[in-house]
Amino acid sequence: MGMTPHYSLDVLQCEQCAALGYLLPTLTVMKTQLREMVQRVTPLTLCQALVKAIMSAIDVFEDPKAKLAAAVHPKFKLDWVDDVTERAQLVELLKHCVRQQAGNHQAETQVEHVQPPTATTNDFFARLTAKRQTNMSSSMDVANEVVT
Questions:
Q1: 21: which of 43, 60, 69, 138 fits an S-S bond (Cβ 3.0–4.6 Å)?
Q2: Widest CA span in the chain
Q3: Where is average pLDDT lowest: 33-37, 74-78, 92-96, 137-141?
Q4: More confident residue, 8 or 108
């Protein structure tokens, strides 16, 4: 059974997923699901304008911190970014931030251990995982790109 767009609220509100890195991948999956709802053989009749407004609002979300958080999250990396230009810009932003932090010689912070997500959360992000497996040979790992 497929997940529905309203499940994204459950993902963002769960304790295991309460991190900024989950926001943009969740919105990306939600937008894809909403787009599929609009393009169905039997399209929406009552809520189509609302769905299109939500999709437009997702498009204008441009927070660099949220993008970086998702890009360095081991579950998502760059799998949620479809546009090649946006992906390259994000890699460059990540490189810049890493160089800036390395130049500042800031002390390391302790990372709190996070419980692994539940099975239903994994199902919600199955689209992104499948995308990574399909594009494994052609995609670059951000960490390797920053190191070189």
A1: 69
A2: 57
A3: 137-141
A4: 8
Q: Residue 112 in 3-state DSSP?
A: coil
Long-range Cβ contact pairs of 143-147 (< 8 A, separation 24 or more): 145/91, 145/95, 146/94, 146/95, 146/98
pLDDT at 112: 53
Separation between Cα atoms, residue 3 and residue 30, nearest integer Å: 9
d(CA 145, CA 148): 5
Segment (H or E) for 77: none
**SS3 call for 48:** helix
Angle formed at CA 74 by CA 138 and CA 21, multiple of 5 degrees: 110
Residue type at position 54: I
| Contact assessment for residue 20 and residue 65, using Cβ atoms and an 8 Å cutoff | yes
Percent of the chain residues past pLDDT 90, beyond the cut: 11
Q: What is the rounded CA–CA span in Å between residue 76 and residue 136? A: 13
Residue, of 96 and 105, whose pLDDT is higher: 96
Q: How many Å apart are CA 47 and CA 112, to the nearest integer?
A: 41
